[in-house]
Amino acid sequence: MRIGVIADTHAQAVEDIPLSILDVLERVDLIVHAGDITERAVLERFREIGEVKAVYGNMDSGELKRMLPDRRTLDIEGKQIGVCHGSGEPWGVAERVRLLFGEVDVIIFGHSHLPFNEYIRGTLMFNPGRARDSFGIVTIEKEIKAEIIKF
Predict the structure, then answer these.
(1) 2-150 has which fold?
(2) Nearest CA among 36, 21, 32 for reference residue 106
(3) pLDDT tens per residue, range 2-46
(4) Which of 44, 57, 102, 113 has its CA 20 to 30 A from that of 6?
């Protein structure tokens, strides 16, 4: 399964999202958004492209915060994937997010706007970075592969 991973779009309208991201997301099996979508119209545009699993971030509208959870765990191809936005200072956000989940294979997060693709205590910690600069692809087969795509 190919998962398009995006975070921190900070978009007021669909036109704010780089077309290159939308093109790639049309060719994945699932879209995971790690928060700071900002407005419902943007989430709905992603849903027009394909299935979306999302959480809210600190900059999301009240409407999105009522619609979406602050964190979730997905079971995909037998792998456990935690998703949350993150909070606080950008430094150390990966460590703080790691504490929110027990034994999972991957944690997808955002907030810092900085791409991150490293293991912490046996779990792949994956932040695709700010959507205007980068996004990610996570492929789940027998093994998990994660790639950050920068513009």
Answers:
(1) Purple Acid Phosphatase; chain A, domain 2 (3.60.21)
(2) 32
(3) 999 999 999 988 788 888 899 999 999 999 999 999 999 999 999
(4) 102
* Helix H or strand E segment including 95: helix 93-98
Count of positions (residues) in the chain: 151
| DSSP classification of residue 119 | E
- Give the predicted TM-score (pTM) of the model: 0.96
Q: Count other Cβ atoms within 10 Å, centred on residue 113.
A: 17
Query: What is d(CA 86, CA 90) in angstroms, rounded to the nearest whole number?
Result: 9
Amino acid at 56: Y
Nearest to 145 by CA among 121, 124, 129: 124
Q: What is the mean pLDDT of residues 51-59?
A: 97
Domain positions in the chain are 2-150
